């Protein structure tokens, strides 16, 4: 094994980081309050707020410098003084005015170290704190003599930051021991695509960076306490033991190697090395536990049913190679992230840090519960789940993006809360629209109340249903809506023996309709990975498009809380089952080419057809189905609608698509384009040629990923060595050469270097021609002489796509009927 060399190299290259890793914030105010001298605290020096250098910062006229005559031994000098704001002072005058050089997200930390002085007992202080008119703390009072540090993360769009302290009553007072204000690293809080954890549905929480966040917990799971010494943002990370629900379920894991930070993943500023170098994993040695169990932590957050940002940190330090670890993440018992695949999420580099943000509500007991447990994808021999770190931040309240600095703070307090309530109000109205409106119209919705799919009612009277119901499709179906009773009887009441597939959406049954049409019935289960949005998008897309090489929708059913899609039945099943892993006779090379050409045509239609650019997002050999005559049709559009605009802008959200087929550029740029489909299609081409899975974890490392492995052989000019032996002697050299070049180009690292699917189609047609009428020898001129036939092929393609224009044109209006869908369907990635 070449491991030691790698490790040594890793160590050598990571050493310089250790010394140079420090973050220098553009704005960096550190104030030692109530003092005229500097105080050093961990690695930093805090400037006395009544020193000359700070004279412009402190602006409250009636504040008092207070010092502790009897500081506890060994207590930091920073906490020996405090600034006190006696009651009765005007709220208009801010205590501190700090000029900022950069707008954007800042950290604000307020230290409160109460002590007793003859004039003031700081323990009896009671006050509020606001920043630029926005209230951070209300009626805050210290608990005994414990030092409390409150940390807030918020976006400041004004050049001045003002902190005001306001005693709760005229008879009391406010105080502060130290203040930190510094710029957060760029993109510390990302706006797009944070998943809101709610049962059985996917919602996106946007504008996270405009929220005021208050840190409630910051935990180094499985590790030791980390102090500001150990953290480039001077954070403190506590150990997780006190929060573990069942200590016996977890086992500490750690590594001595520095994490393999990858660009696009987490950075040292997101969390320090030590967070990623330790974790808790499933304690599978514990005989008292079942084979599958969760590790759970419960974090008291002090507020009930309040939104929190839950940031989870991961780094696969428990696997010995890639693709060993798959697990699920739950927040408050709701599935937050299914089948986390750290290998894929962290750029196929082991032990590279990754983090993901969720927005979730604390429960009625004021708890946020985080669980990790094995996924269905886990290899039974290697069932495991890990967690390296957790941060929980309360979303204090939405801030208006327009908040600048006002002349009168009071105005801003009012404006802030009015805007806040406006946002709340519109959310409420939205909720009512979503959940209540159709209730009045249909009594039957009552029955589906208890299921997770109730939001479907929102669309019950929408134009989607109307349009589809009224559609007379070319297949002669008067209506696409099919009754549950008909489906039930057509599938023998969902007889398990009729199951022909299981997907993220649910089970697929073979069935028949009243008129004896054979159909495939895809029945969603509540809580399935794909939920309502996929269901609706599939209906929307499929009713809009009809094409010989796309599996067509026969109908759908949404009765009694069922979500069922009915498709034309494809006798021969998925392409994959004709390549390997089944008893089907192997397809000939010519058949395989025809299948590839058919699938490319279907995809070409999706990308460029009369509807509009649609990205499939999950092209793979199990999504290319064959009918009785081995005509290929592309299936499973459940994922296709999500253009990059909604939930794919940031890697921290659920990456959809299938491992092994996923466009590597998608990870780098987090942007999905039609070239991502081309990449996946290239992997299918190699799969067709070599008859092996896109990813085979059982193989030696360099063979695990088919695309990488095949391209290695192709670069050596020896791809013929790994061609499926069943067809090796049928393939003409020129045909192989052209095919291999095409597949390789599809799998180019960068989307711009990949051909369009139209070019791929043209090339595949050409490969078929070379196979049928090309020379037997692989000579430069023989294979190179393609002009004549190529032109023919291209003309063929053009006329083909014209004649196969869809019959669903008339329904294209339905897209505009829903803003959601118009967004979803846009191929904005181009
Ligand atoms: C306190 O620190 C500031 C910089 O933070 C420095 O300019 C100043 O000289 C220091 N004062 C003393 C008395 O050391
Ligand atoms: C998000 O913030 C941007 C700019 O700050 C604003 O234009 C947009 O309306 C906000 N969106 C929501 C949903 O609040
Ligand atoms: C954190 O920093 C302190 C002080 O430098 C050091 O003693 C300790 O070992 C560090 N902890 C870790 C886990 O690196
Ligand atoms: C893990 O926890 C979730 C949420 O509470 C639960 O639904 C799931 O069944 C648990 N998994 C196991 C294996 O116990």
Describe this entry's structure for a reader.
With 830 residues, this protein is α+β, with helices and mostly antiparallel strands. It folds into 4 domains: 5-17 and 188-395, Jelly Rolls, CATH 2.60.120; 24-183, Galactose-binding lectin (Jelly Rolls, Sandwich); 456-568, 2-Layer Sandwich (Phosphorylase Kinase, domain 1), CATH 3.30.200.20; 584-825, Orthogonal Bundle (Transferase(Phosphotransferase), domain 1), CATH 1.10.510.10. The chain is built from 18 helices and 35 strands. The strands form 7 sheets. Strands 1, 2, 3, 7, 10, 13, 14, 15, 16, 17, 21, 24 and 27 form a 13-stranded mixed β-sheet that branches. A 5-stranded antiparallel β-sheet has the order 28-29-30-32-31, sandwiched between helices. A hairpin with a 2-residue loop joins strand 2 and strand 3. Helix 13 runs antiparallel to helix 14 (757-773). Residues 1-20, 399-478, 641-655 and 785-830 have low confidence and may be disordered. The structure holds 2-acetamido-2-deoxy-beta-D-glucopyranose (4 copies).
Helix count from the secondary structure assignment = 18
The small-molecule ligands in this entry are: 2-acetamido-2-deoxy-beta-D-glucopyranose
**Average pLDDT across residues?**
76
Please give the share of residues in helix: 10-25%
CATH architecture of the largest domain: Orthogonal Bundle
Q: How many domains in all? A: 4
Supply the CATH class of the largest domain: Mainly Alpha
In what range is the share of β-strand residues?
Answer: 15-25%
The first-to-last residue Cα distance is 43 Å
By CATH, the superfamily of the largest domain comes out as Transferase(Phosphotransferase) domain 1
